[in-house]
Write a structure and sequence with these properties.
The chain is an alpha+beta fold and 428 residues long. The chain is 58% helix and 18% strand. The two termini are 44 Å apart. One of its GO terms (cellular component) is membrane. This is Sensor histidine kinase. Keywords: Kinase, Membrane, Transferase, Transmembrane, Transmembrane helix, Two-component regulatory system.
Length: 428
């Protein structure tokens, strides 16, 4: 049996369970305690009344046993049985424990396994007589004492818990009824409370979902605006700055061509080198701002070129790339976000991971785009490290398209970033 079955329950069902389970536990505990308390009261009452009835009956039976008036004793016993429904059987025994009188209750119940017994004692009293001369007459007086005790028989009383159980059962039913009404009232209050909390929580969750959706739309718009601005800057650098650098280089080259050996020629050659360096830097900056291959070759081609660039730039680390799927049908917004995510991940690996092998994998299927960037570097402790701006930016880009990102890492175990972005992402 799965222990997480409750995860599919509604919020209202969870609130009801949280409220009703303790109430049900308390109700069951109270019922169990009340039931066993009533049974204990029956046992205590029988243990108290049994010896008392046996003792009183034994004291009142002395004369009947002494005079062998068993009919009078039987009448007394029957009257006691009729007046007390908790007595099941009364037996009067002689000194050898032979039955002299036996009587059963008119409506016998379930007899108790124990019985209570009291002895019937015959007490002999010796009276000191005075002789004619006024002196004590000592002929019939025992030497030891003036009285003696002799056991003539026994009275055995067997109690029946039936009548006592009926009385205690009625009390138990009253307690059970009161507890059931209390449980019902608590359940109704819990139902009303859960209904109110559920409505409030659903409204809060709806507002939160709306705010989250608005946040995702805002992130997509911001990313789009940033990419548009980058594209504009890249075009200005390409069309204005690089064109000016090319013109400056050509002018310097013309000076070199018309000048002889000397300082002017050397300065013109320096200008050519500086213009060429600035031009290459400008092209690199243009590629970072707006990769042309992303528009020409698609996401897989752009990422592959990026991976090759890192592989050439870092001799001590091997960068591998693989792709599967038709990336031509990928939405442009998802494509540029995925490219920026891979760009940020590879930049972090180059700066911090100290890895010797990095793998970038892209897969596009009917469900969506899947990306995996893994390295065998030093990793980090996710519980202690705080997320940097790069990681936060990656998470926001993924969240903007209702995707998910999982980062698995540990000290000395490398880092693996798995990203999934639904293919049918909502439009900006």
């Amino acid at each position: 049996m799965r222990l997480d079955f409750w995860r599919h329950w509604s919020v209202r069902a969870r609130l009801l369970c949280v409220t009703l389970i303790p109430l049900a536990y308390m109700f069951c505990t109270f019922v169990w305690y009340a039931y066993h308390s009533r049974l204990a009261e029956v046992r205590e009452e029988m243990a108290e009344r049994g010896p008392l009835v046996a003792k009183v009956l034994a004291q009142s039976s002395e004369f009947s046993l002494l005079t062998h008036r068993y009919d009078d004793l039987k009448l007394t016993v029957n009257g006691l049985l009729q007046s007390d429904a908790s007595i099941d059987r009364i037996e009067v025994l002689d000194a050898q424990r032979h039955a002299l009188v036996q009587a059963l209750a008119p409506a016998p119940g379930r007899p108790d396994a124990r019985y209570y017994e009291a002895p019937v004692l015959k007490r002999l009293m010796f009276v000191t007589m005075l002789a004619a001369d006024g002196k004590p007459y000592r002929k019939d007086q025992p030497a030891a004492s003036s009285s003696a005790v002799e056991t003539m028989g026994y009275v055995r009383v067997t109690m029946s818990p039936s009548a006592l159980l009926v009385k205690q059962t009625r009390r138990f039913y009253v307690e059970l009824l009161v507890a059931s009404l209390g449980l019902l009232v608590c359940a109704l209050l819990a139902w009303q409370l859960s209904q109110g909390l559920n409505a409030s929580l659903q409204a809060s969750m709806q507002a939160l979902r709306a705010a989250d959706a608005e946040k995702r739309r805002l992130i997509r718009k911001v990313n789009t605006a940033v990419e548009d601005e980058r594209k504009s800057i890249a075009l200005e650098i390409h069309d204005e700055l690089n064109a000016t650098l090319i013109a400056a280089r050509l002018e310097a080259q013309r000076i070199v061509d018309v000048s002889g050996e000397g300082e002017v020629r050397e300065r013109a050659q320096s200008i050519i080198k500086l213009a060429l360096g600035l031009y290459n830097s400008g092209r690199t900056l243009v590629r970072r701002l707006r990769p042309e291959v992303l528009d020409m070759l698609g996401l897989d081609g752009a990422v592959e070129e990026m991976v090759r660039h890192y592989d050439r730039a870092h001799a001590g680390c091997r960068y591998l790339f693989r792709a599967d799927g038709d990336f031509a049908r990928l939405e442009s917004g998802i494509g540029i976000s995925a490219y920026r995510i891979v760009q940020e991940a590879l930049s972090n690996i180059a700066k911090h991971a100290h890895a010797t092998q990095v793998t970038v994998a892209l897969t596009l299927d009917g469900a969506g785009l899947r990306m995996e960037i893994a390295d065998n570097g030093s990793g980090y402790d996710a519980a202690l490290a705080s997320a940097g701006i790069g990681i936060v930016g990656m998470r926001e880009r993924v969240a903007a398209f209702e995707g998910r990102i999982d980062i698995a890492t540990a000290l000395g175990a490398g880092t693996r970033i798995a990203i999934f972005i639904p293919h049918a992402a909502p439009a900006s």
